[in-house]
Amino acid sequence: MRKHREALRAQGLRPIQIWVPDTRRPGFAEEARRQSLAVRDDPQEKEVLDWIEKAMDYSGWE
């Protein structure tokens, strides 16, 4: 593992750490559903989703 990390650093990369919700936690699915339903009929939801879809367009990237 050490050699692998050193090789990645030699390529100009660096490690980062992020914290994300634990999807195994009791109640996670229920809360995700509650939040999804809360925005389901929001008039701005389609606008936001359209923007996200445009933002994720990586065509032309090398």
Looking at how many chains there are and whether they match, the oligomeric state comes to single chain
Secondary structural class? mainly alpha
Question: Rg, please?
Answer: 19 Å
| Number of DSSP E strands | 0
Distance between the termini: 28 Å
Biggest pleated-sheet summary: none
Sum up the structure in keywords.
3 helices; 62 residues; flat; mainly alpha; 53% helix
Summarize the structure.
This protein is mainly alpha-helical and 62 residues long.
Describe this structure in words.
This protein is mainly alpha-helical and 62 residues long. It has helices spanning 2-10, 28-40, 45-55. It starts with a helix and ends in a 7-residue tail after the last helix.
What is the fold's blueprint, element by element?
Elements: H1 2-10, H2 28-40, H3 45-55
